[in-house]
Specification:
The chain is of the alpha/beta class. The protein has helices at about 20-25, 50-55, 60, 65-70, 115-130, 140-155, 175-185, 275-295, 335-340, 345-350, and strands at about 10-15, 30-35, 40-45, 60-65, 75, 80, 85-90, 95, 100, 135, 160-165, 190-195, 195-205, 205-210, 215, 220, 260-265, 310-315, 320-325, 330-335. Helix content is about 30%, strand content about 25%. It starts with 9 loop residues before the first strand and ends in a 6-residue tail after the last helix. The protein binds flavin-adenine dinucleotide (FAD). GO terms for molecular function: electron-transferring-flavoprotein dehydrogenase activity; flavin adenine dinucleotide binding; NADH dehydrogenase (quinone) (non-electrogenic) activity.
């Protein structure tokens, strides 16, 4: 039986990542809010590469959900099903809702508590420290940023980056990819493009590529794209709202098409724009505003619309430099570094949740 609720409207947020954390925070004093996430904490996702070379950095970037949600209820369990009026969790809980917001951008990586994630980063750090040669597989933002972090903090290590595509950073423009390549090679990172690594070929620390090259590495990191967190929706009442890429189709008010009380925000949606955390936060602001209006019984004509944003992306290159692409302008060096690479937007992200930046 679904857990009953009182007079106050209930909003259930599934996914406490970049977008979901903010919407739950914004609504906690306006409704009976439940936040369901498979782990106890929110982690600022793009900081995970820095945390591998500096594990103490993660103390500020991993935030227990309960710390910024004193007036909401946090449920630590994966959501497994949705019906028209309730959400089911892996632990078998049924949580009724008046309004639902799906924000499951990408699935977690298995660590359940902050302590587990901190020890994971400590182990990753030890792995890097004790290796002379390191192989990063994948030349998207994760592979580029990880190679940048390692070569900055451990300039004497031999770092090789292998990418199956013909250029780095394919999610943004060619110039950005070229600037990343130039920066990495200037730091003596070996970049191999147009080849993939046969992972099962590894023998005595030697990896073979699809082009027959042999790469010696004491350890490797798989930096390939994170899957979309929507596979769990395939058997739910939203199964017909997934597009061919597994993204939830939303209308301009950020409601799942055809559902008046179900919203979706962040990377899980089909909004035609770059998948970026600051945009997931912008979605959260619009959806929270709309939810507040609906909770107060306001007319639907008052709901705000979300307009897809033009491309803006930052890629860090170590602690001081970076690459920025805004519309069709690409810039690299110290300025993008000052904007992103120093603190990786951690202070700002913490303040948005009402926490001290330090
Ligand atoms: C290397 C890298 C660098 C980046 N740099 C930037 C940057 O500089 N600026 C920027 O704005 N963006 C950046 N991004 C993109 C940004 O991280 C994503 O766009 C953002 O995390 C999307 O937010 P979200 O809320 O949609 O999903 P997420 O932040 O992925 O959160 C999803 C949450 O849902 C939970 N979840 C998933 N499935 C379930 C389930 N079934 N039940 C319960 N919980 C579930 C997960 O545990 C997670 O907490 C970067 C990404 C990468 C990989």
């Amino acid at each position: 039986m679904a857990e009953l609720h009182g007079e106050e409207k209930r909003v259930v947020v599934v996914g406490g990542g970049v977008g979901g954390s903010l919407i739950a925070k914004n609504l906690q004093n306006h409704a009976d809010v439940f936040l369901i996430d498979s782990k106890e904490y929110f982690e600022i996702p793009w900081t995970s590469l820095r945390s591998r070379v500096e594990p103490s950095f993660a103390e500020r970037t991993i935030i227990n959900q309960a710390d910024y949600l004193p007036n909401a209820r946090v449920v630590t369990s994966a959501a497994t099903n949705i019906t028209e009026n309730e959400v089911q969790t892996a632990q078998g809980r049924l949580i009724a809702y008046d309004y639902l917001d799906v924000a499951t951008g990408h699935p977690g990586d298995g660590a359940y508590t902050k302590a587990q994630k901190l020890s994971y980063y400590q182990a990753e750090y030890e792995k890097i420290k004790s290796s002379n040669s390191i192989l990063a597989i994948g030349g998207g933002p994760t592979g580029v940023e990880l190679a940048g972090e390692i070569i900055t903090d451990f300039p004497d290590k031999k770092v090789t980056l292998v990418h199956r595509g013909s250029r780095l950073l394919e999610f943004i423009g060619e110039k950005a990819g070229k600037k990343a390549l130039d920066w990495l090679t200037s730091k003596k990172v070996e970049v191999i493009l147009g080849q993939s690594v046969k992972l099962d070929s590894e023998s005595d620390g030697v990896y073979e590529t699809s082009g027959g090259e042999k790469i010696r590495a004491d350890c490797h990191f798989l930096c390939v794209g994170n899957p979309i967190g929507s596979s769990w929706l395939k058997e739910t009442c939203l199964k017909d709202n997934l597009d061919a890429n597994g993204r939830l189709m939303v209308d301009s008010k950020l409601r799942v098409k055809g559902h008046k009380n179900i919203f979706a925000i962040g990377d899980v949606t089909d909004i035609p724009e770059l998948k970026q955390g600051y945009l997931a936060q912008a979605h959260a602001a619009v959806a929270a505003k709309n939810l507040k209006l609906l909770i107060k019984g306001q007319n639907e004509s008052k709901l705000s619309s979300y307009k897809p944003a033009s491309p803006l992306a930052f890629v860090s290159l170590g602690r001081k430099e970076g690459i920025a692409q805004a519309m069709c302008i690409t810039m690299s060096g110290r300025i993008p570094g000052i904007i992103k690479s120093g603190d990786l937007f951690v202070g700002r992200s913490r303040r948005q949740l009402g926490l001290k930046s330090a």
